[in-house]
């Protein structure tokens, strides 16, 4: 596999990922390449423009908090950078929540063990559903976060469906 864009991709990801991501990768979650980036360019649009990665080859992972009464549940949504997750309908229903919204930044960072702007579906807490939009799996290779703002991962899009807790959902994104 070759990573997209002009990045210096390497299979030596060990120093380029957050601790929970490293733990998951050591467990054999996915074959990935990693590349260092300027952390000021971690946001998708700036990243793609600087490093020549197509937006449709970049996938975003967002943490959603679903609430019903006093109970809060979390899920991660993986969608192409050209789309947005349907939080208020699809994700809310999947979480059986009365209300669903993007998790507060502090909660997402603390619970995931990853940096905001670098959260990835690899290495998330056990029990979290990882909802993957079916359109993501139509790409050959996608670029995702590494758990850190200073690097990115590239992997076969199909491997996202094999992550612990992964559920492929048609129409998750619009």
TrEMBL record:
Residues 39-157 form the YbaK/aminoacyl-tRNA synthetase-associated domain. InterPro entries: YbaK/aa-tRNA-synt-asso_dom_sf (IPR036754), YbaK/aa-tRNA-synth-assoc-dom (IPR007214). Coiled coil: none annotated. Transmembrane segments: none annotated. It comes from the Bacteria. Pfam families: tRNA_edit (PF04073). SUPFAM superfamilies: YbaK/ProRS associated domain (SSF55826). This is YbaK/EbsC family protein. The lineage of its organism: Bacteria, Bacillati, Actinomycetota, Actinomycetes, Jatrophihabitantales. CDD domains: PA2301 (cd04939). It comes from Jatrophihabitans cynanchi.
